[in-house]
Amino acid sequence: MSLELDRVVFIGRTFAEYVAMFGLDMAKLQGRRILDCPAGACSFTKEAADLGIDATASDMAYQLSPAMIRQKGLADLGHTIDKIKQAKNDYIWTNVADVPALAAQRKQALLLATEDMDRRPERYVAAVLPKLPFANHTFGLVLSAHFLFTYSEQFDRAFHQSTLDELLRVAKEVRVFPLVSLDGKRSVHVDPLFKRLRQKGYTVVEKRVSYQFQKGADSVAIIRRQ
């Protein structure tokens, strides 16, 4: 049974998870402006900023107060954990021991993120994709996790295309993880959209990464302007 979600969930992942899933080189993060979008309840921006990395997070949920975001995050976490319990065989329980450990990790990321929203609100920018309130080439790198391609049934190809174009407008490089949808299969949008980007002159590389939790989700797309 594959994971079935009836909405886009606001889930938190940690800095360490981001480094693994995006195949990041820590030494190359310093000196780059980085955007996490849509960032959800992830603690990447908080933990990156603590390390002196210039990171910004953007998500439509940031229109809400940190307290309301925390409440939404806890509700979505409970919803997601219930669904994962029903589809445990679709996940690899190597780096995370079990469902309670996963819930604790996701909750910790949420709490770190929402605490930082109170502390450094300027780093958390409300935006509704496919539009972002940033100038062209504002960032050196965009990290986009568990949204594009993950929700392939919920969002059509036109939305995926518009969103990728917008991310590439504001950054020199965009990394997207994973390339599979909720059912663990390669998204039907991946190949047509990557073909189009290559035709427009972008380089698109798919790279295997060390991170894997959802079965089949073990590659990141690295898209760069030439």
TrEMBL record:
Recall the GO molecular function terms of this protein's record: methyltransferase activity
Q: Which UniProt keywords apply?
A: Methyltransferase, Transferase
Q: What InterPro entries would the database entry show?
A: SAM-dependent_MTases_sf
Gene Ontology biological-process annotations: methylation
Name the UniProt record assigns to this protein: S-adenosylmethionine (SAM)-dependent methyltransferase
